Amino acid sequence: MTHSEIQALLDDRYRRYDQPAFIAPDPISLPHRYSQRADIEISGLFAALLAWGKRSIILKKMDELLARMDHAPHQFILGHQDDDLRRLEKFCHRTFCDTDLLYFVHWLRWYYRQHETLEDAFLHGATQRERLENFHHLFFSLPDAPARTRKHVATPARNSACKRVNMYLRWMVRRDEYGVDFGLWTRLSPADLVCPLDVHVERVARRLGLLTRKQTDWQAATELTARLREFDPTDPVKYDFALFGLGIDEKF
């Protein structure tokens, strides 16, 4: 396909898939339950970082997690007593278990006692790579951070593609005219985001010649994003909708 044909395809599929109907079967539906910014940020962080496996199972486990927090995550994070943490015990989704969950809750309470928005945690650095590396460092800066929990927050420092963190940032930063992504955060630019590189996006990107690197790593994610900027330099990750839709719905 020519460059113009690829752009026409991606633009068409972006318009098709970036619609409210996308929300219900996707993990982004969890933060869409809320109207307060902190609730959206917290539920979105959990939904994004736990988004591995079948989407139906992700939604079920996230619903369980939010129920354990009385469906009021910000209030639970800031107001829980030690006894309340018992309701988080034995929660597990794949390899994310209660040890990891308890540290997440501990860190979020420490953080929200000092900041009104989680956006502040992603502003440290001149490049997106630096911002994600610094967020990872901040997240695990508390002295009791379990070593086992580090694998649940990706960082470019380990050459990860950081799929789930990049997806979370897409949700929070993109100002989406169709109401799928939230656009809550205004100090980060959609132009700086990196495309979430999941198996469907990767497969379609390779078929379209948008990705040549063999490894699925940070360099591959930035290579794909650079190609997508050729089609829209101000909002390249909007094409995540097109690539994902082509991959999962159309088996492209």
Description:
It holds the Pfam family DUF2400. This is TIGR02757 family protein. Helix 1 packs across helix 10, helix 2 runs antiparallel to helix 7 and helix 8 crosses helix 10. This protein has a two-stranded antiparallel sheet with strand order 1-2. It is globular and about 60 Å long. It has one domain. Helices cover 47% and strands 2% of the residues. The model has no long low-confidence stretch (mean pLDDT 97). With 252 residues, the protein is mainly α. The protein contains 10 helices and 2 strands; from the N terminus they run H-H-H-H-E-E-H-H-H-H-H-H.
What attributes characterize this protein structure?
mainly alpha, 10 helices, two-stranded antiparallel ribbon
Could you outline the blueprint of secondary structure elements for this entry?
Blueprint: H1 3-17, H2 37-49, H3 55-68, H4 73-79, E1 92-93, E2 96-97, H5 98-112, H6 128-139, H7 163-173, H8 199-207, H9 218-229, H10 239-248
Antiparallel strand pairs: 1-2
Helix pairs in contact: 1-10, 2-7, 8-10
Secondary-structure-based class equals: mainly alpha
Largest sheet, spatial ordering of strands: 1-2
Mean pLDDT: 97
Integer-rounded radius of gyration = 18 Å
SSE run: HHHHEEHHHHHH
Shape: globular
N/C terminus separation: 14 Å
Uncertain ranges: none
Question: How much of the polypeptide forms β-strand, as a percent range?
Answer: under 5%
> Which percent bin holds the helix content?
40-55%
DSSP helix count? 10
Protein name: TIGR02757 family protein
Organism: Hymenobacter jeollabukensis
GO molecular function: catalytic activity
Pfam families: DUF2400
